[in-house]
Inverse folding.
């Protein structure tokens, strides 16, 4: 790797058994792995036509409100482009009873997706537009079957939730709801979209238009499907995460059920959410509940993602994230991983900076260097109090270019904070500083006088003036970087 006389910067991924590409340059070699690229955690086929049933109850003023607005918009196609929802085969169905009692309604409907248009009621009324899938984690107090879950459609729920966030009238809150009420006996993916929470909101034309517009504009993209555990009825953390990422929640469990979850129910929650992982709102659960959930998930082999990790997965798949985490643990057990906003899906390549070059960089401006890393297509690691380790991951087609960018960033950072010179392929760093040994030799005792000299002030000892220059030492550090002049 690196030494005082020169540097060989090499990049290997020990976990890759079938090496595919080797790059060479004046600064080193880079070994990359070969694998099939995975871009979707749960694939969404663009342009795929679905049979979508929109269902409301004749007893429900909010459902009638939403349906009426959709009808009015679709009846007037002049002067507008087709909505994304119009690429699908739409059918409308009015149920004579409350929607929560519509178990097995999918047997009457030839549909790939069912969207229930509904009112939302609460003992604490609030202006709210919500999205959720149905199910009873506990008893069946509002329709459905106890301990039974409907099949969720996380990608569609995410698309509609984001639409509601764009179109919500002033004064309305937008959120997921936790899994609750019926119908539960549905084999077809479904979800509820609701207006709450009183007659005033249920019949509000603005709210009806917001929901209708959000449905018509819904166009599911690539999502990271998750099951959420923890939080109150309106799933505040899950909502916030989803609105700023591609995290799409299916079933969400209220905190009150965390301690009673068993292996079978957690497996069902994940399966019926088509979830790639579980998110746990750790602040909403007790230590005992957290231990219980962690043990269940570990026993089932279900991956748990933190909020930080989810937000870093904006542009890469969970499979690539797992590869990067595996490499990080090989580099330094217990490493934490940071994914830059510029990293994209691809084949991971491990690249390494000279350790002394990075150390000098972090000595000058660790915060500025870390901030600058977010503009490069890389993942980087921290471990054991070291903010940035020398090893990095990139997925770019030309890793040597990224390596050059990292070296240039290091050199620029060092030059901005130190007295430096570039001589050929050598970076010369000159520093001056206070030398305690010189001070002691001049009879200066440790204490306040050291501080004065370090500030640049003259001090007197036994009638003799001691200037800062008399206790200053000069140090020169030389780092050899082949091809340095071409990188700057």
């Amino acid at each position: 790797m690196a030494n005082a006389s020169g540097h060989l910067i090499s990049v290997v991924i020990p976990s890759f058994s079938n090496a595919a590409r080797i790059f060479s340059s004046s600064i080193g070699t880079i070994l990359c792995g070969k694998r099939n690229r995975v871009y979707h955690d749960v694939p969404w086929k663009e342009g795929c036509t679905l049979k979508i049933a929109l269902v409301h109850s004749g007893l429900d003023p909010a459902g009638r409100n939403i349906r009426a607005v959709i009808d009015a918009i679709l009846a007037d196609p002049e002067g507008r482009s087709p909505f994304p929802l119009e690429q699908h085969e739409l059918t409308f169905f009015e149920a004579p009873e409350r929607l929560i009692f519509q178990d097995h309604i999918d047997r009457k409907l030839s549909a790939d997706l069912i969207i229930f248009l509904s009112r939302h009621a609460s003992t604490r009324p609030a202006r709210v537009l919500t999205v959720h899938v149905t199910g009873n984690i506990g008893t069946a107090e509002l329709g459905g079957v106890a301990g039974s879950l409907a099949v969720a459609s996380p990608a569609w729920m995410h698309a509609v939730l984001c639409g509601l966030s764009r179109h919500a009238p002033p004064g309305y809150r937008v959120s997921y709801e936790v899994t609750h009420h019926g119908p539960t006996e549905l084999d077809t993916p479904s979800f509820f979209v609701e207006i709450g929470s009183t007659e005033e909101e249920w019949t509000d034309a603005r709210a009806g238009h917001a929901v209708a517009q959000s449905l018509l504009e819904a166009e599911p993209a690539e999502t990271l499907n998750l099951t959420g555990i923890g939080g109150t009825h309106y799933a505040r953390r899950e909502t916030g995460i989803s609105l700023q990422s591609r995290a799409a929640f299916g079933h969400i469990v209220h905190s009150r059920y965390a301690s009673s979850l068993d292996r079978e129910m957690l497996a069902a929650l994940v399966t019926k959410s088509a979830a790639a992982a579980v998110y746990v709102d750790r602040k909403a659960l007790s230590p005992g509940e957290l231990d219980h959930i962690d043990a269940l998930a570990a026993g089932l082999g279900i991956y748990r993602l933190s909020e930080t990790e989810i937000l870093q997965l904006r542009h890469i798949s969970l499979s690539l994230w797992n590869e990067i985490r595996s490499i990080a643990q090989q580099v330094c057990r217990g490493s934490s991983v940071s994914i830059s906003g510029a990293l994209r899906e691809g084949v991971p390549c491990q690249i390494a900076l000279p350790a002394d070059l990075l150390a000098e960089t972090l000595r000058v401006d660790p915060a500025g260097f870390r901030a600058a890393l977010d503009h490069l297509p890389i993942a980087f690691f921290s471990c054991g109090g070291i903010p940035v380790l020398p090893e990095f991951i990139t997925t770019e087609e030309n890793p040597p270019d990224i390596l050059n960018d990292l070296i240039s960033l290091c050199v620029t950072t060092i030059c901005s904070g130190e007295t430096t010179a570039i001589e050929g392929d050598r970076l010369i760093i000159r520093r001056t500083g206070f030398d305690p040994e010189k001070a002691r030799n001049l009879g200066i005792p440790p204490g306040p006088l050291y501080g004065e000299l370090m500030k640049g002030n003259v001090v007197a000892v036994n009638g003799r003036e001691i200037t800062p220059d008399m206790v200053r030492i000069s140090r020169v550090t030389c780092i050899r970087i082949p091809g340095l002049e071409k990188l700057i």
User: Anything to note?
Assistant: The radius of gyration is 30 Å. Confidence is low (pLDDT under 50) at residues 1-29, 35-44.
